[in-house]
Amino acid sequence: MRAYDIILKKRNGGKLTKEEIEFMVNGYVKGEIPDYQMSAFLMAIYFRHMDTEERAIFTEVMANSGDKVDLSSIPGIKIDKHSTGGVGDKTTLVVGPIVASLGVPVAKMSGRALGHTGGTIDKLESIPGFRTSLTEEEFFENVRKIGIAVVGQTANLVPADKKIYALRDATATVDEVSLIAASIMSKKLAGGADGYVLDVKVGSGAFMKTIEQATELAEAMVGIAKSHGKKAVAVLTNMDVPLGKMVGNSLEVLEAIETLKGNGPEDFTQLCITLSAWMCHLAEKGTYEECVQLAKNALESGKAFEKFREFVKYQGGNPEVVDKPKEILPMTDKIVEFTAPEDGYITAIDTEKIGIASNYLGAGRKTKEDTIDYSVGIEIIKKLGDYVKKGEPIAKMYVSEKSDTETARKLLLESYKFSPEKPEHKPIILGIVK
Ligand code: URA
C-alpha cells in the first residue's frame, strides 16, 4: 500500500477501506507518513468528504491509537457530555453535580481552552487546590464514592488526534464535518462511556456558525456514536450570545455556583436542565420529561449544590469556595465598565470577539506555554434584545495589570450592534438530533 495511491483515491472522490484508513492514520502516528502527505490527505477529505462508514472507521482507528479508559468496573450506565466549544460555557460545572446527585456516574475527561473558547479544566483549576490530574485509582475511587470525577485528558489519549489536529490547524483543514466529528468522537470513545449527550453550539461564538452546519456535525457525531453501539443525543444550542453572563475562569465558577444555588441566569439554567435531563434519560432514569423534573428538583433541593461541594473537596479544592466564592476564588477588584456607544436595542453580539476580548484581558493563553490569569474576564450586563441608552454600562471588564484592556474594549465595541428595531428572540435550545 502507498500513501500516494490513497491520497489519489480520496482526491478523486473514492471511498476508502478500513485498511487504507488504518495505513494513513497509524503510519502518520508512527512517523512513517510525512506531514506533507498527511496534509494532502486531509485536504482531499476536506473537499471530497467521507461517508458514514468511512467516518466510523476513521474515528475508531483514531480512538485505538492510544490508551482507552475502561469504565466497566463502575456500576451503572455512564453517560458523557461534550460541548463543541463556546464562550461562557461552564455547563459541566453544573450538569456534572446535577446528574451525579441523581445517581448517574460522571467519569469525565475535559479539555482546556481552545482558540476563543474556554475550557472546563482551566475553570476548575481556578478553585484553589483543585487537582485536575488524578491517578487512575483516585479517579475511579472518586466516581465510586461520590459519583463524579473530572480530569484533564491523559497524555496518551488519542495521540492520532493530537498530531492530526495540530496539522489541521496549520493547513486550513479544521472546519470539515468528518474531521471535526472524528476528532471529537475518537476522544469520547476512548473515554469509555456508554453514551453521549453532545452540546453542539451554533452561532457567532461557535465553530459552526449556521444551523445547517451544526445539524450536519450533530448528525455525523450521533451517527458515529450509534455505529459503535453507543447511545447518543445532540442538542443544538444558541451561541449567538455568551452563555449566561460571565466569561472568564473564576467568574464562570462563581456563576456556576450561583446557578447551583438556584440563582443562575435563565438561559444557562435552562441549558443545564436540558443537558442533565438527556443524560439521565440515556442512563435510563426515566422518560425525558421525568428527567427534566428530576434535574429541576436536584437544583431546587440543593442536592446538586451539595454534590458540587463534595466534588471540589474530593479533588483537593477548597470546599469553602461554595459558600464564599468571592473570597476564595482569585478575583480582581479592578473593574472597567464598557458603555453603550449609542441608543438602541442590542441586535447582535459577535460572541467570538467577546471570547477573544476576554483572552486579551488574560483569561486565555497566547501560546501553549502561557499561563492563565484566573481572576479576569467579562461580565455581560446587557444581552441581545435589551434596550440601552448611550453611556449606559453594558459589560464589565475585570482586569489586572497585565490585561490589554484597550484591545479588549475595541473588540467589545466591534462586537455589539444596535438598532431602533427590537430583534427577534432566539431560544437557547435550537434543536435535537437523535
Ligand atoms: N474540537 C475538537 O476536539 N476537534 C475538532 O476538530 C474541533 C473541535
UniProtKB/TrEMBL annotation:
Organism, scientific name: Fervidobacterium gondwanense DSM 13020
Family that this chain belongs to: Belongs to the thymidine/pyrimidine-nucleoside phosphorylase family.
Keywords associated with the record: Glycosyltransferase, Metal-binding, Transferase
GO MF annotation: an example: thymidine phosphorylase activity
Catalytic reactions of this protein: thymidine + phosphate = 2-deoxy-alpha-D-ribose 1-phosphate + thymine; uridine + phosphate = alpha-D-ribose 1-phosphate + uracil; 2'-deoxyuridine + phosphate = 2-deoxy-alpha-D-ribose 1-phosphate + uracil
Protein EC: 2.4.2.2
InterPro entries named among the record's database cross-references: Glycosyl_Trfase_fam3, Glycosyl_Trfase_fam3_N_dom, Glycosyl_Trfase_fam3_N_dom_sf, Nuc_phospho_transferase, PYNP-like_C_sf, PYNP_C, Pyrmidine_PPas_bac/euk, Pyrmidine_PPase_CS
Cofactor: K(+)
Complex formation: Homodimer.
Gene Ontology process terms (BP): pyrimidine nucleobase metabolic process; pyrimidine nucleoside metabolic process
One GO location term (cellular component): cytosol
The protein, known as: Pyrimidine-nucleoside phosphorylase
